Amino acid sequence: MTRLKTEDICQMPDTLETYDRDLKSVIGLSLKDLACRVAGLGPSAMDGYITGCRVCAVPVTSGQGIINNFSETLCAIASHLGFDAFISRQTDIAGLSEAFEENADIVLASDDDRFVAIHLGHRQVVDNSQATGRGFAFALDQMAGGLTSRPLLVVGCGPVGQHAALTAAALGARVTLCDLDWACCRDFAYRHRHYAEFSIADSLPAALRTHDLIIDATPAADILDVQSIGPAALIAAPGVPCGVSAEGRKMLGPRLLWDTLRIGVAVMLMEAVA
Ligand code: PYL
Q1: Can you give the pTM of this predicted structure?
Q2: 67 Cα–ligand 1 center, Å
Q3: 111 lines ligand 1 (CB under 6 A)
Q4: Cβ(207)–Cβ(185) below 8 Å
Q5: Which atom of ligand 1 is nearest to the CA of 67?
Q6: What does the pLDDT look like over 248-259, one tens digit per residue?
Q7: Rounded to 5 degrees, what angle do the CA atoms 137, 3, 83 make?
Q8: Is 251 close to ligand 1, i.e. is its CB under 6 Å away?
């Protein structure tokens, strides 16, 4: 998991309204409606679960330590979605205990390896990588007006890419995987052979030329050469840094959905509360 930097997220709390408007113009859904769709409940039904639901972000000091603004951003996203969000005054286990004592329903916490939402009442854990993969597959489904029978390329066969691939297949796409570690793709395709048929690309440039639906689930900058990407291609990129260069992002405009945290957190919360 690539570690976010403060500069990746510090603007997020103050720009969520603008972000939501932009998201709706690109995928036709607000952040809340997208996350509700992934969680399988309608927004109005979800309101019954969200109202009064207390979400506590607990800063974690292990490993490389706290990212300034990370817990604040988690709270801002949760509040934007209608949750009653707060940050624990203490960190780590003391913060977890405080969350419980302050009647939190959901705890959000991340170390350097895992970022989870834990629903203390439902005893449910939702992992950020899985939720992000699901969220971006649904987002691309929205952007494309449906994935049924359409070729879709997932670049990066890590946890985010794997869950994006499973969800895209469930939404009807014909999924091709691409990763520098070919064996990782082969093992994933074999493990899930009864669920769907996953193809494996030998060459990324060739795969980019033959796919109009692309999910970039790699932690690599500038890995997607826009010169290889078709004029109708749509790209969903949960990665940090983005796999498309700044110049490429300008050229793609609304054909690229890049988000490093908001969609994943929104899906985590809706799946935890549903
Ligand atoms: C959750 C993000 C999404 C992409 N990379 C993941 C990351 O940066 N993980 C590390 C998060 C560390 C948070 C730190 C804190 O402030 O509590 N332990």
Answers
A1: 0.97
A2: 7
A3: yes
A4: no
A5: 16
A6: 999 999 999 999
A7: 60
A8: no
